Amino acid sequence: MNKTQSDSLILFTKRYIDIWQDTVNHNPKSSELYGMPSPCIKDTIDLAIFWLPIRPSPHTLNIVEEVVNIRIHDDAHLFYGTQYAGDMKAQWNHLSLSLLQIWSDDDFSRLEQNIIAHLTMQKRLKRRPSIFIATTDDETEIVSIDNQTGNVILEKLITNETDVLADDLDAFLSSLKPIVQ
Fold this sequence. Notes:
The structure is a single chain. This protein is α+β, with helices and mostly antiparallel strands and 181 residues long. It has one domain: Syd protein (SMI1/KNR4-like, 3-Layer(aba) Sandwich), CATH 3.40.1580. It contains five helices and ten strands. It has helices at 3-24, 62-68, 74-81, 105-124, 169-175; strands at residues 29-30, 41-45, 48-51, 88-92, 95-99, 130-136, 141-146, 152-156, 161-166, 177-178. It starts with a helix and ends with a strand. The model has no long low-confidence stretch (mean pLDDT 93).
């Protein structure tokens, strides 16, 4: 895995944490993750948790590769294998998104199942394989890594249209603006 790509995710996460600490004077907060165990949890107040990322033993999407019989792009392995963290809100140009992250070992297992279902559906619909990395405010659009090119793309799920957002994961993560919400 490319060290630069890993550094980009770690640097984005640092920028995300810094903006939380500078803006609201505490670690990132989530009420959606309340009640879900994770080694990332640093504090729980009322019905919210405060978290910081951790770097567990690296995970891979090898099981997904075996089940779906496809080679997953290295950037997808890297994206989901670098750290545990809460999902992070960000802005790419005018697109608001939530960068998906792994919260725990159990969450990683759910992610593998979701990626398998996603890739199976794409194969059935004769679409190019992609690995989702972010959701958007529009439920019919996701941000993904094109499994063949490594481009980061905006996928329009209903129409099968795609727009290239960045040449690779490094360029995408470097251009994201963290958001406190």
